[in-house]
Amino acid sequence: MTAPAIELKGISKAFGPVQANKDISIRVMPGTIHGIIGENGAGKSTLMSILYGFYKADRGEIFINGNKTEIPDSQAAIAAGIGMVFQHFKLVENFTVLENVVLGAEDGARLGPSLAKAREQLVHLAKEYELNVDPDALIEEIGVGMQQRVEILKALYREAEILILDEPTGVLTPAEADHLFRILEGLKEQGKTIILITHKLREIMDVTDSVSVMRRGEMTDTVKTSETSPEELAELMVGRKVLLRVDKKPAEPGAPVLEVNNLQVVDEKGVQRLKGVSLNVRAGEILGIAGVAGNGQSELLEVLGGIRTATGSIKINGQEIDLSGKYSDGRSRRERGIAHVPEDRQREGLIMDFRAWENSAFGYHHDPAYQSGLLMNNAAIRADTEGKIERFDVRPANPLLEAKSFSGGNQQKIVLAREIERNPDLLLVGQPTRGVDIGAIEFIHQRIVELRDAGKAILLVSVELDEILSLSDRIAVIFDGHIMGERLPAETDEKELGLLMAGITDTEHEHSIEEIEANLAEAAGEVH
Amino acid sequence: MDKMPKWADLFLIPIINLILAFIISGLVILAIGEDPIAALKLMVEGSVMSTYGWGFTLYYATNFIFTGLAVAVAFHAAMFNIGGEGQAMLGGLGVALVCLFVPWPHWSLAIIGAMFSAAMFGALWAAVPAYLQAKRGSHIVITTIMFNFIAASLLNYVLVNNLRPKGAMDPATAKFPEPTHLPSLSDILNGIGIPFAERTPANVTLFIALAACVLVYLLIWRTRLGYQIRAFGKSEPAAIYAGISPTRIIMISMMISGALAGMMAINNVMGEAERLVLNSTEGAGFIGIAVALMGRSHPFGVLLAALLFGFLYQGGAELALWTTIPRELIVVIQALVILFTGALDGMVRAPVERMFLAMRRKEG
């Protein structure tokens, strides 16, 4: 019997009082794709960082191909044949592909011979694994899909036999993700071992041979992918049965609440981020904005939330609102009945050092109910917060805790409770479930649907296509500051939306991955 | 979860810092051939063992309360106001103008006018760097420190060319008229039957400083403005999201800060010197930074830290008077206290936090 490519035995790691990994054992056989799934904070990244030599385990042993191996740093990991593709690429933006591949693995003081050798190998590797890249392109000029392939090539150039990919599809369109998975299949056939870290159940089901589930620092189970189901995996992740589908009635849309016309935004660097966006959202419907991150959806939310200035026109309930920023800000937007759950709750939605009760008045601190004379009525705010915490099931249910001591899901519930309970006419929601555990996702989706059923308009921005498809009543796809088209969820699929997200409106015909990537790279290039 | 209990953060760490500073100061005193224990005894006796000593300690502490509060308020808005010194100088000018040119019938009215004027001058002096920060992005640390120099030059010019009485050689104003004389602490305490040494500089301003502590506490933690200041100080993007204008918060918090620094002048210019002299602030604006750091930007902490620095100032003066320890060494001791409580805070904090974590793990 062959030895496992990787075997971890009893790995434990604590950060202060937090036990990030608790007695974790795992075996990955060579020539397989092994998935590691778990919620945010379950300890997946810590485990992989131990394997890659970033952290030292408090206890436990690592075996590579049956040999006990010490991995004190990433050099040792590379020497042991481990390559890592991080979620956030570690590439030098103004270097070429070739220079990035060689960086840190030069043969001698003179760069010329190294580069020549690398070029030869790169061409060879690219052909062998169908990892097509242009060796002389600058990183900043190529799309994320190709950047990711450069990361994989970097690892292969260093003769990696074991490849770890951390949330590789977070920034990819569906077509690019499919392309990546085909590459991974090819690598597997060549005998490479692949560890895929993800929180997306579907990816696990599609490409892995076996899967390990982590929950709260522990490995709850390892199963063969062919013998499990998404429902079972979700249950293993959360520890209870969860509803993976959003339960909702058909929408009953009323009058338009939000009407956006020819909205244009130029950012601080002079780059035009919105190039004439027009859309509307009616009462009692959820409009989902699908798109790859960085195509203008964040700016759209910021303009609507009063954070950013723009030109064009926005009407709320038929009345024009100020876009110049001279007569309006976040506060005046709230007074007009717009509530805003921002994309980045830790940077914008919450003050992490404020207590939960202070945060639950944030943005609404001018409310007379929160005042008594010259002072703020802290007792009233606290009482108010206690109610919100109870109704939104925030845990721990303690309004005196600082926002940073809550988990991502509970932080999001604090923001959501604050915004939804204002009973707004229009709710702006950005990435409502980013970094949120599955159990809380279900709850957050229900609350958004409830608000819709109460006849409110909701504008949803999310980079998770699954979320857009299951939650929206209507979907608009944004690409490079333009709305590429609108679709009804029942009449479209991921493939069509994926093409629109890459700026391709001709969704009837097949398109090559090269064409999709070229489009995306062009749009991204403008931003640089 | 907090890394350690609140009391450790607020009291244990500053005390450890202080002890370390004193130990090193002791070594320095040993090195120049003096007895550190005797020196410490002399400092304590000269500053807090007699009402005479207290009369000076409290006077210095009053200065430091104002400048410490000034830095603390700006800190809450994430503004590092190093310009307390210049703002206090300008406050002194405001006090001098009001005392010299307004015929006050009684000190109680004069002090209100002087407070108002000192606060206005200080606030306006802080408003210029604040505006440059808010609108032009000029770093507040650079501009406020530059404004200290401008303030010193301006004061010099005004004293020499405008306010100096004819024929006087000294760049200082005339003595303020009698009705602006503030009751000293000994006047007040002796008046209600508590014996207190006379001819000490502590005066009624002490009570205004204490009231300022309470008001700053209410402002920062109980009013909407304070809420907005703290929110902006913790996260500018979040503040903008909530509709809080950065420009407005920077201007208001810096002007409150400048006003507090300016109000120090009631104590040193109106209460003590009773005329405006060059360098009347004697570095109190800078001590305010250390006071705010040590007091964790909390008014009660500022009060305690101001008392400590009052003790160091007065004790240091005693040392210089009665021993051969040179005046410069006093500055060394004060600098060591600032170094340990301010700059080297993290050196003590990290091990103490680890200790508490280890203790907690043992319990859990």
State the end-to-end distance of chain B.
Answer: 14 Å
Global morphology of chain B: globular
Distance between the termini of chain A: 52 Å
Relative strand content of chain A: 15-25%
- Overall domain count of chain B: 2
DSSP, total strands of chain A: 22
- Tell me the Rg of chain A in angstroms: 25 Å
Mean pLDDT of chain A, rounded to whole units? 90
Largest interface: A-B, 35 and 24 residues
For the record, the CATH architecture of the largest domain in chain A stands as: 3-Layer(aba) Sandwich
User: So how many helices of chain A?
Assistant: 18
Unreliable stretches of chain B? none
Number of strands of chain B: 0
Any idea how many domains of chain A?
Answer: 3
Structural class of chain A: alpha/beta
Shape of chain A: globular
Could you describe the largest sheet of chain B, including whether it forms a barrel?
none
Structure, explained:
The complex is a heterodimer of chains A (528) and B (364). Chain A is of the alpha/beta class and 528 residues long. In chain A, 34% of the residues lie in helices and 24% in strands. Chain A is built from 18 helices and 22 strands. The longest helix of chain A has 19 residues. Chain B has 364 residues and is mainly alpha-helical. At the A-B interface, helix 10, helix 11 and strand 18 of A face helix 9, helix 10 and helix 15 of B.
Task: Give structural attributes.
heterodimer; A: about 525 residues; alpha/beta; Rossmann fold; six-stranded mixed sheet; 18 helices; globular; B: about 375 residues; mainly alpha; ABC transporter involved in vitamin B12 uptake, BtuC; 2 domains; 15 helices; about 75% helix
What topology emerges from the helices and strands here?
The complex is a heterodimer of chains A (528) and B (364).
Chain A: E1 6-15, E2 18-28, E3 33-38, H1 44-51, E4 59-64, E5 67-68, H2 74-79, E6 82-85, H3 97-102, H4 111-129, H5 144-157, E7 162-166, H6 174-189, E8 193-198, H7 201-207, E9 210-215, E10 218-224, H8 230-238, E11 256-266, E12 272-282, E13 286-290, H9 297-304, E14 311-316, E15 319-320, H10 330-335, E16 338-341, H11 345-349, H12 356-359, E17 371-372, E18 375-376, H13 378-391, H14 408-420, E19 426-430, H15 438-453, E20 457-461, H16 465-471, E21 474-479, E22 482-487, H17 494-501, H18 513-527
Parallel strand pairs in A: 3-8, 3-9, 6-7, 7-8, 13-20, 13-21, 16-19, 19-20
Antiparallel strand pairs in A: 1-2, 1-4, 4-5, 9-10, 11-12, 11-14, 14-15, 17-18, 21-22
Chain B: H1 6-31, H2 36-48, H3 51-76, H4 84-101, H5 107-136, H6 140-163, H7 185-191, H8 205-222, H9 224-234, H10 236-241, H11 246-273, H12 284-294, H13 299-322, H14 327-343, H15 345-363
Helix pairs in contact in B: 1-14, 1-15, 2-3, 2-13, 3-8, 3-11, 3-12, 3-13, 4-5, 4-6, 4-11, 4-12, 5-6, 5-11, 8-9, 8-13, 9-11, 12-13, 13-14
